[in-house]
Write a structure and sequence with these properties.
Number of domains: 1
Distance between the termini: 15 Å
Helix content: over 70%
Strand content: under 5%
Order of helices and strands: HHHHEHHHE
Shape: elongated
Strand order of the largest sheet: 1-2
Length: 225
């Protein structure tokens, strides 16, 4: 049983790292908005579909025979449905929070929402699919929680650093004729777009790390029903 759990965790780690690397290289952030049917949308759909399917398959194999084609088909269908839900969440955010001239805020919302989505998905997979229950005594997770919080602090610090750069640029160059001709909101959008793209490197490290830690914590605090 211990070897099986290690194999499950290893599979999730590998899938998560590959998901993060491909997402960063191909689209920076795997973000899906219905109506924006660009290449990035379809690449993100495929990445999330495969990743969600892998998570479901691993969770389902906790107590079922491996290699059953029926379970593989179920995993693919679940992955597709979960991806549609994620796309719906992204679309709602794009129609609300994203309507402001600061790309850093949009990037932060996209990446934080990914972490929250995975927390909810993993809890569902462990409890409903893997048929596990959460123990009252949660031992052996202090280090994992500390790493999780450290990653979030790193991410917050990165965003704060870039926010200060934007504030400095606005105060120093906001009254220049070129900026006034372009429009201050447009200038802020251009600058935050550049900084937002830079921040996705740290963002990818953070959300990949958080994805793995969330699964790892659930692995430690749940037992068979």
């Amino acid at each position: 049983m211990e070897d099986q759990r290690k194999n499950e965790l290893a599979a999730v780690i590998i899938a998560t790292v590959v998901f993060g690397i491909l997402g960063r290289l191909l689209v920076r952030i795997p973000y899906m908005v219905f109506g924006d049917f660009s290449s990035g949308f379809f690449i993100s759909i495929v990445l999330w579909w495969i990743y969600n399917s892998v998570l479901f398959y691993v969770a389902e194999q906790m107590y079922m025979d491996k290699g059953n084609k029926k379970y593989i088909t179920k995993s693919i269908l679940f992955g597709f449905l979960a991806t549609l839900i994620k796309a719906g969440i992204d679309t709602c955010m794009d129609l609300t929070i994203a309507r402001q001239p600061n790309m850093l805020i949009l990037v932060a919302v996209m990446e934080i929402s990914m972490i929250l989505y995975i927390i909810g998905l993993d809890c569902f997979l462990f409890v409903k699919v893997g048929k596990r229950k959460i123990q009252k005594e949660k031992k052996g997770i202090t280090a994992l929680v500390s790493v999780f919080c450290s990653l979030l602090i790193l991410y917050a610090g990165t965003l704060f650093y870039y926010k200060e750069q934007v504030q400095y640029a606005v105060e120093k160059y906001g009254n220049m004729q070129e900026v006034q001709e372009l429009g201050l909101d447009r200038a802020i959008w251009n600058l935050t777009t550049v900084l937002g793209r830079r921040s996705t490197t740290v963002g990818t490290i953070v959300y990949v790390g958080c994805f793995i830690i969330v699964w790892w914590i659930l692995e430690k605090i749940t037992v068979e029903e």
